[in-house]
Fold 5-demethoxyubiquinol-8 5-hydroxylase UbiM.
Amino acid sequence: MTNFDIVVVGAGPIGLAFAASLAASDLKVALIERRSMADLAQPAFDGREIALTHASVKILQELGAWDAIPCSEKSPLRGARVLNGSSPFALSFDAPHGSAKPLGILVPNHWIRRALFSIVREREHARVFSGCKVVAAQVNPGNAKVTLSDGRQLTAGLLVAADSRLSVLRDLLGIAADINRLGCSMLICRVRHELPHHRIATEWFDHKQTIAMLPLAEGVSSLLVTLPANEVSRLVVMNDADFLAEMSQRCHGRLGTMSLASSRHAYSLVTTWADRFWMPRAALIGDAAVGMHPVTAHGFNIGLGGQHRLAEGILTAWGKGTDIADPSLLRHYETRLRLSAAPLYHATNVLVKLYTDERPLARAARHVGLRLGQHLPFVRRGISAALGR
Ligand SMILES: Cc1cc2nc3c(=O)[nH]c(=O)nc-3n(C[C@H](O)[C@H](O)[C@H](O)COP(=O)(O)OP(=O)(O)OC[C@H]3O[C@@H](n4cnc5c(N)ncnc54)[C@H](O)[C@@H]3O)c2cc1C
């Protein structure tokens, strides 16, 4: 048996950020992760380019992770355009007028994980148990206990689930969640292209497909195509030439001639919302609490803000010498996360429903919706400000 103050299950970006956030204390933290240590130290490119808000950049700076990401991996986003079907009309989001700041900054997910892991590894307070899973969990009034797949048992004052939207720990703790498997997948790859992107992202809700183009280096974009899962499985294994020909056709030549600049990656789309984000001696963070649809690019941002607030509450309790799993602290964390995440989570789900509905009424409604958005400046400015926060 090994005793810790906090056991975190899942060393993804949010579990790692949480462990890094606690480094200011002498709390003993255990991180349990099914991936190997080599994979944690040097994660491979996974296709995801995370659009960071300014609030997220600030948290990563405070944690010391921002400077561990090379400048060449940070791509400022000047604006975004939302298109509907074949209409030439675009709803535009730009950085607030007069602001020198970009709307957000795109950073590859594997670089965020690598930078956060390097911070956690430098600190003495956290011990990483890699290559193993949690197979049993129990919470008692005084502590929590987990059993690992290799038979080891760990106890802690607080158990934290950061093990993805399909969290096993959440199930082991008996916390229910709304899990919505959308039946479609997202295919992602980087492409080199002929036409300039001007650092503008494009989200294009076309008939029976959604395409996003995220601007990276000059002449390079991340291409994201959402389609029924079987279509994505077909595209993932297609040879490069046929794949590029089909992508050029699907993109209607918006980027000009394209060539592949990375491997292809596929993600099945699942959204989740846990019934509760805490129970005595346990809390859920990141996607284990709220698993957003990626179309509005906010899952990581919400998870990072959430873990930051939970860590702040814990550090305050630790500073005062009170219980780091005090129910009022965990309840406060839940309330604030619900308030910040619920509007975006539900609005994103409504948006996805409206923009993937092929019925004529829905198509007309989204056309009207985009024009209305463009002519109501407070809607556009409000969304731009929320993105750039
Ligand atoms: C295609 C795509 C694009 C996205 N783009 C954006 C974006 O632009 N902006 C944004 O804010 N968000 C974006 N997101 C969302 C973002 O990637 C997630 O919100 C973020 O990865 C959540 O981090 P996490 O640490 O909570 O979970 P995860 O990243 O899922 O990490 C969970 C970790 O737990 C480990 N694990 C799982 N089960 C166990 C177990 N039983 N035992 C031990 N370890 C376990 C896993 O190996 C993993 O390391 C995107 C998501 C996708 C799919």
Q: What stands out?
A: Residues 9-15, 32-35, 48, 50-51, 109, 133-134, 162-164, 168, 186, 188, 267, 286-287, 294, 297-301, 303 surround flavin-adenine dinucleotide (CB under 6 Å). DSSP finds eleven helices and 22 strands in the chain. The radius of gyration is 21 Å.
